[in-house]
Amino acid sequence: MKKINRRQFITLAAAGAGTAVAASWMWERVSSSQLSAKPAIDLPKLHKSNNGLLELNLEASNRAVKLGDKQAYLLTYNGQIPAPRLEAKPGDTVRIHFTNNLSQATNLHYHGLHIPPTGNADNVFLSIEPGESLNYEFTIPSNHPAGTFWYHPHRHGFVAEQLFGGLAGLFIMRGELDEIPEIKAAKEEFLVLQDFALDGEGRLMSSAHMSIMTGREGDVITINGDPNPTFSLPAKGMVRWRILNASTSRFYRLSLENHLFYLIATEGGALTEPVEISELLLTPGQRAEVLIKADQKPGKYRLLNLPYDRGAMGMGMMGGGGMMGRTGMMSRNEDTPRVLATINYGSAVKPASLPKKLSVIPALPKPKQVRRFELNHGMAPGMGMVFLINGQPYQNNRIDTQVKLNTVEDWEIINTGVMDHPFHLHVNHFQVISRNGQPEPYPAWKDTVLVPRGETVRIRIPFRDFAGKTVYHCHILDHEDLGMMGTLAIQG
Ligand SMILES: [Cu+2]
Question: What are phi and psi of 43, to 5 degrees?
């Protein structure tokens, strides 16, 4: 087992964390009689494939939902926050009868799945207008890795707004990782992290009140739609947490009091062996699977979100006028840890042990083709402040990068801006080779990598199986909507 950062327990001023939670939850309580006629759904519904087919109806619409015991009016899939969890196996066919009952165009992106970017599969160029329906259908490759993937809207221009309204759900691929005895024995939990900006009546705040340039954040943070859920750990046992950052812009730096995390999977699936960490940083779009050994005294432990400075656009760069809202500055002003959940020890079971081997990750051949992508921002004629890749804002009729199917490339991503940018590539997983010239300490398959301001990250990508057009972009989704995206053509 690899140990990346040393055992380091978090001490914090209890008062500070408590105040942050109380202050984050200011709108009035609504009695259950005032809630809409539709019953509240506490747990996201699960749709599993059966006899090789995962088929369901999925409707995007505005709905009244409960976040904890408060009412909110959000954007939902099938009326649920988070959206229903989908589960499939390699080789399955997926058929989703999708209806758009939102007031603006939308579509679906299957984030992290290795499936075609064309037709009615993972095609982000589709636009489904209000009131229209579309049948998504694709087959998952029979050698697809197991892992924690997800689905969300990807209609350029509306992505941040729609995700911030709540439209996100898990897409779980079952497979070999789930069959490792120690992992199979662990209690499995799914944690979908979202944040919301709501007014006193629980309605979504207008984006005019938010810092779009910095990337909108809300001061209500929920896990599975709950502002402070309780998870139980079996004493001496082990849990497997599958965590998704489904926030539009917010980074999470997670730490569990008196406990370590054993990282077993990143966005593209299993690592080769567990990696011991005391903190887990998840940018928007990223997922991680961790094992937690319940090896402390029975009692309550807090899951904390530690401060993280991801940079911000200064006032001088904003050009004035209403862009710098209250909620948008939260990321810089939050300098105390915040409690996201409480963990409660249950009754004793037999002691758990960690798995030794998880998977084999082959080293990729050193490629001939190396490309450079510079991330920054700037003024564009007629557009104002935009976010740029290689000096250009996104244009839907332009191909920015052409690659050949069945080749491997290195992409060097250089952030010369003032904010951190998580870089996401659709369809194909990649490996991080180095950060600022320093080799990555262990191999991992990823689809989203943090490129901090002033830094350079080199990734190696095999383009496999699927030709067609797709995109790469910053996963601070306001930055994507404001231009930090490029079109990739994979030529067969
Ligand atoms: Cu960005």
Answer: -110, 140
